[in-house]
Amino acid sequence: MEATSSNSTDIQTIANNCEPLGLPKAYLEFLEKYGKGGGVFIGEDYTNLKLRGLKEALEKLLEVEHFPKTLQPEDFVFLSVQGCQYYFFKLNNESNPPVYGYFEGITRGNFDLVAESFSAFLVKHAQGLI
């Protein structure tokens, strides 16, 4: 499947929802190339149109699963796999922040550190390690 980029209006809309901290540079570069689908994360929810409900879906799952941690306002959920795996990073002015995950039925006690940076996450995903 061919990559479909986001236009600047799409990206600005997403970024505006993340004020005052804004989106990390590494993620913005990803959106510019793949924000409307194709190329990566085939069959997974990550595109511009799906981002809006991902955080709420994870919050609901955490509540149902009685998970002891909650998402913070600065947590940005960018990917869901079949509604049972979620990936997020913190909006904290880092250009390439660490990625954390929650895996239904597997994650216990604390969110899992999945990759040391968003770029490393993309590499791991491409290698089939995630």
Topology:
Blueprint: H1 8-16, H2 25-34, H3 48-64, E1 75-81, E2 85-90, E3 99-103, E4 112-115, H4 118-126
Antiparallel strand pairs: 1-2, 2-3, 3-4
In short:
35% of the residues lie in helices and 17% in strands. It is of the alpha+beta class.
Question: What report would you give on this structure?
Answer:
With 130 residues, this protein is α+β, with helices and mostly antiparallel strands. The protein has a single domain (8-126), classed as SMI1/KNR4-like (3-Layer(aba) Sandwich), CATH 3.40.1580.10. It is 35% helix and 17% strand. It has four helices and four strands. It has helices at residues 8-16, 25-34, 48-64, 118-126; strands spanning 75-81, 85-90, 99-103, 112-115. Strands 1-2-3-4 form a four-stranded antiparallel sheet. It is globular and about 35 Å long.
Quaternary status of these chains? single chain
Low-confidence stretches: 1-7, 45-49
The portion of residues assigned to helices is 25-40%
- The class by helix and strand makeup works out as alpha+beta
CATH fold descriptor: SMI1/KNR4-like
Which value, in Å, is the CA radius of gyration?
14 Å
Order of helices and strands: HHHEEEEH
Strand order, largest beta sheet: 1-2-3-4
Count the E strands: 4
Number of helices: 4
Please tell me what the overall shape is.
globular
Give the full name of the CATH homologous superfamily. Answer: SMI1/KNR4-like
The CATH class is Alpha Beta
Q: Hey, roughly how much beta strand do the residues contain?
A: 15-25%
State the separation between the terminal residues, measured CA to CA. Answer: 20 Å
Number of domains: 1
CATH architecture: 3-Layer(aba) Sandwich
